């Protein structure tokens, strides 16, 4: 396990009148080298949970184990500096944290602060750019002159430049256009599959992450409502409704067709392309449901 | 100028509340960010503004209430031609909900934040309280009134920002990707609020969005590309136009994509309204 939480609770402003418990009795495991999605309605505790993953927040109760570091509630925590390099946290709107006048300076800022030599830091920056699928020519550009999608990727690259084993991203695709979103998700999947990094993505747009996530954790009111594989989630999409989330079209269509043909145990087909291929192969499919053809929408 | 909408105006029925004639914007005249945009939007219409990241969508709406100075052309909002002496009047007509709600918080609590805008309008106390109650209930944030904006989640912040704008009852409401941080349930809720605003008939809605469901719910789509108006069309026509979709970096809604994928495999189906309808069409004898 890359990350393990045992009976973790977290309360903001614990010793004040305004104390507010954001997480209740969370026990979860996030396996190494897999892509895990975390979802939940707004205010369900997603962003709080993330900040436990590299010690920005410490548990009020319970134990957080990240890689080989254990943080126990009420105890003095171990040295967190090495952990912060190994667990890269990408916050919402990471491009707002960019501040240097070239992309390269922004990317080497972190590695230099963790004590790397300038040469090593620059090498890391180049590697991180390639990992995010960005052209090295952008290194000399002003980050604020990049397009929205490029800026977001460059900001994520600045976290990758520290070569983290675990990459945690809070709503990485928010406000990007759909094509840039799909590209970014594909790039993050590659980080996991090709580089072997543990990737954790918090999202409220499950549709785009469903086809690629290995595992899901769903939060409701600061408690775990579900953890398991994408397949298990696809077998019971109502769990999403109970968490106050919408059921994405892709999941709804798969669930209905899987139910009709008894395919519940199979790998879910959560893209339009893979589902269409499956439908074409199913017995008794009427090939001309109607002849009106393309474009006569009901909507 | 779009002829169809000019005709509507000429017919005397509907007033154009937003009128742009040859509007341009740029820091350097050689490289305009927006170039020669003309469009006329009648009162009560719900318009989606689409286009790839960085194509000038936010810039265009910011020109309308002079958050950015236009470098050419004429802008008329609710009958006021935009100029130094009309900026105040125009800003009272337009409410803006920004992409990132952190950029528009003023108050120390949610309640103060919503009241701030109402105080600016010099409303009587009873009216302020009435509106506070109405819009916090509408947006489901009545439990958050005493909280500091910093305590809220991203989606909660966005709902507060929307409530504080709607409470000012502007005739034109501009949403700059206001739903981008909302989960699906809250997005559906926002769509219902917008639909309510439309049937109310008092609001003209401009919505910058990449979201297929939001675009489908609107009346009209303005597509920006390369600093110009690439298309002025309907949502249905947009989603049928693969070339335009690609230009705007948009993806069609899932049922549309599924129908297209099925058609490319020789299965002729319409865009299904639901999964049940698809199953009934494909396997009527099961």
Summarize the structure.
Chain B: InterPro entries: AAA+_ATPase (IPR003593), ABC_transporter-like_ATP-bd (IPR003439), ABC_transporter-like_CS (IPR017871), ABC_transpr_CbiO/EcfA_su (IPR015856), ECF_ABC_transporter_ATP-bd (IPR050095), P-loop_NTPase (IPR027417). By secondary structure, chain A is an alpha/beta fold.
SSE topology string of chain B: HEEEHEEHEHHHEHEHEEHHHH
Structural class of chain A: alpha/beta
Compute the separation of the termini of chain A in Å.
46 Å
Number of helices of chain A: 11
Describe the structure.
The complex is a heterodimer of chains A (299) and B (286). The model of chain A is unreliable at 291-299 (pLDDT under 50). Chain A is globular. In chain A, helix 3 (103-113) crosses helix 4 (118-131). In chain A, strand 1 (3-12) and strand 2 form a beta hairpin. Chain A has helices at residues 46-52, 81-86, 103-113, 118-131, 148-160, 178-195, 206-209, 230-235, 238-242, 249-261, 272-281, and strands at 3-12, 20-30, 35-40, 61-66, 69-72, 87-90, 166-170, 198-202, 215-220, 223-229. In chain A, the strands form 2 sheets. Chain A has a 6-stranded mixed sheet, sandwiched between helices. A 4-stranded antiparallel sheet of chain A has the order 2-1-4-5, with helices on one face. Chain A has 299 residues and is of the alpha/beta class. Helix content of chain B is 40%, strand content 20%. By secondary structure, chain B is an alpha/beta fold. Chain B contains 12 helices and 10 strands. The chains are: A alpha/beta (299), B alpha/beta (286). Chain A: Belongs to the ABC transporter superfamily. Chain A: Pfam families: ABC_tran.
């Amino acid at each position: 396990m890359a990350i393990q939480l045992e009976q973790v609770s977290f309360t903001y402003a614990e010793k004040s009148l305004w104390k507010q418990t954001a997480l209740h009795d969370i026990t979860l495991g996030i396996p190494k080298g897999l892509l895990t999605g975390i979802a939940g309605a707004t205010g369900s505790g997603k962003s709080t949970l993330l900040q436990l993953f590299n010690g920005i927040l410490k548990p009020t109760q319970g134990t957080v184990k990240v890689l080989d570091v254990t943080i126990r509630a009420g105890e003095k925590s171990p040295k967190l500096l090495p952990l912060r390099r190994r667990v890269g946290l990408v916050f919402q709107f990471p491009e707002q944290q960019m501040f240097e006048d070239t992309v390269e300076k922004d990317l080497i800022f972190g590695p230099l602060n963790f004590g790397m030599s300038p040469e090593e830091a620059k090498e890391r920056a180049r590697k991180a750019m390639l990992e995010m699928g960005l052209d090295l020519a952008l290194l000399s550009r002003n980050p604020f002159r990049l397009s929205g999608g490029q800026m977001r990727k460059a900001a994520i690259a600045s976290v990758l430049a520290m070569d983290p084993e675990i990459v945690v991203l809070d709503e990485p695709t928010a406000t990007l256009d759909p094509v840039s979103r799909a590209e970014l998700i594909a790039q993050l999947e590659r980080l996991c599959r090709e580089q072997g990094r543990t990737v954790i993505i918090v999202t409220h747009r499950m549709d785009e992450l469903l086809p690629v996530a290995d595992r899901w954790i769903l939060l409701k009111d600061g408690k775990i409502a579900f953890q398991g594989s994408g397949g298990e989630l696809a077998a019971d999409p109502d769990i999403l409704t109970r968490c106050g989330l919408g059921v994405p079209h892709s999941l709804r269509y798969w669930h209905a067709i899987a139910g009709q043909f008894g395919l519940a145990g199979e790998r879910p087909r959560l893209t339009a392309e893979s589902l269409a291929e499956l439908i074409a192969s199913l017995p008794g499919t009427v090939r001309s449901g109607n002849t009106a053809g393309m474009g006569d929408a009901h909507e | 100028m779009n002829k169809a909408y000019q005709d509507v105006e000429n017919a005397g029925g509907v007033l154009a509340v937003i009128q742009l004639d040859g509007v341009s914007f740029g820091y350097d005249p050689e490289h305009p960010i927006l170039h020669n945009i003309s469009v006329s939007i009648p009162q009560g219409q719900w318009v989606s503004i689409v286009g790839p990241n960085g194509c000038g969508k936010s810039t265009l709406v910011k020109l309308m209430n002079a958050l950015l100075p236009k470098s050419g052309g004429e802008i008329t909002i609710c009958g006021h031609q935009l100029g130094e002496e009309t900026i105040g009047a125009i800003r009272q007509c337009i409410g803006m909900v920004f992409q990132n709600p952190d950029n528009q918080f003023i108050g120390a609590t949610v309640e103060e934040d919503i009241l701030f805008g109402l105080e600016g309008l010099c409303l009587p106390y009873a009216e302020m309280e009435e509106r506070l109650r109405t819009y916090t209930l509408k947006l489901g944030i009545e439990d958050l009134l005493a909280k500091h904006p910093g305590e809220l989640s991203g989606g909660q912040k966005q709902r507060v920002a929307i409530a504080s704008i709607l409470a000012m009852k502007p005739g034109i409401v501009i949403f700059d990707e206001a739903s981008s941080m909302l989960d699906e349930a809250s997005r559906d809720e926002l769509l219902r609020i917008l639909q309510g605003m439309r049937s109310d008939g008092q609001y003209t809605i401009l919505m910058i969005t990449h979201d297929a469901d939001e675009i489908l719910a609107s009346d009209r789509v303005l597509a920006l590309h390369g600093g110009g108006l690439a298309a002025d069309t309907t949502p249905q026509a947009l989603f049928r136009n693969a070339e335009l979709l690609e230009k705007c970096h948009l993806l069609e809604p899932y049922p549309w994509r599924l129908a297209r994928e099925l058609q490319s495999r020789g299965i002729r189906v319409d865009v299904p309204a639901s999964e049940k309808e698809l199953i009934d069409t494909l396997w009527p004898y099961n």
